[in-house]
Design a protein that fits this description.
With 231 residues, this protein is an alpha/beta fold. It contains eight helices and seven strands. β4, α5 and β5 form a beta-alpha-beta unit. α4 packs across α5. The longest helix is centred in the middle third of the chain and has 18 residues. The chain is globular and about 55 Å long.
Length: 231
């Protein structure tokens, strides 16, 4: 029997097709690491995407490619699954809450420091996260990652700022100095990463280096494959 899984991301409502293509490529990459599995993808922003993907897979596990289990995971995704005829589908732990994701963040930051010849205790880290005005869970997930990073890398400062709640990114990024790293705690290079984060950093006079969003790291597909296989 062929096992199957569906990777679901938020996508980009203003322009849903590019994220759909990116997620399809992610699904292909994960499938290459899971022989015997069928891996599909869908975004919630693209109309009918989830429904069509479910029609092509038999009882798939649902892997949320999200950084937290906020409103989208707790409310919207179950509703969409029910509307698509899969109310009993098993939803796995979101990407951002996996212990391995914290390990990935540490590895990404250690690599960024090494590439620049910087010591963590001489470097300020700015974590850029989404946050939410209607759920405490996104902020809690970001703070858990902040704590995990701080437990492994002793930065001179480890600051966490949000797009949609306080403290705002522009506030925490101020006076970070030239030896600073900004890591976006996002799964992809979509709306907020392309627009809001650069705007906030510019307004703050941020002089450091901005790293790619955590979920775009090349090791993310292997992490997702392992999470699916373990389930």
């Amino acid at each position: 029997m062929t096992r199957s899984a569906l990777i679901v991301a938020h996508g980009q409502p203003s322009d849903p097709e590019p994220p759909e293509a990116e997620m399809a490529e992610m699904a292909r990459e994960v499938a290459r690491k899971l022989p015997g599995w069928r891996i599909g993808s869908a975004t919630l922003a693209a109309p009918e995407s989830l429904k069509l993907a479910l029609q092509s897979l038999e009882n798939p596990l649902i892997f949320p490619f999200f950084m937290a289990d906020g409103w989208f995971i707790r409310t919207l995704l179950p509703r969409r699954l029910a509307e698509a005829g899969a109310p009993e589908a098993r939803v796995l732990t979101p990407f951002g809450l996996l212990p391995e994701t914290a390990d990935l963040a540490v590895a990404v930051l250690a690599g960024a420091l090494a590439a620049r010849g910087w010591r963590p205790d001489e470097t300020t880290l700015v974590l850029a996260a989404h946050g939410s005005g209607r759920s405490p869970h996104p902020a809690a997930a970001a703070r858990a990652l902040q704590a995990a990073i701080s437990a492994h890398l002793a930065f001179a400062g480890c600051r966490l700022g949000f797009i949609e709640e306080a403290p705002e990114l522009v506030e925490v990024a101020e006076n970070a100095g030239p030896r600073a790293l900004c890591l976006p705690l996002f799964v992809a290079r979509w709306g907020h990463v392309e627009d809001d984060i650069p705007a906030a950093l510019h307004a703050a006079g941020f002089q450091g280096a901005t790293l790619p969003p955590l979920g775009t790291d090349g090791r993310a597909a292997r992490l997702i494959a392992r999470a699916i296989a373990a389930a």
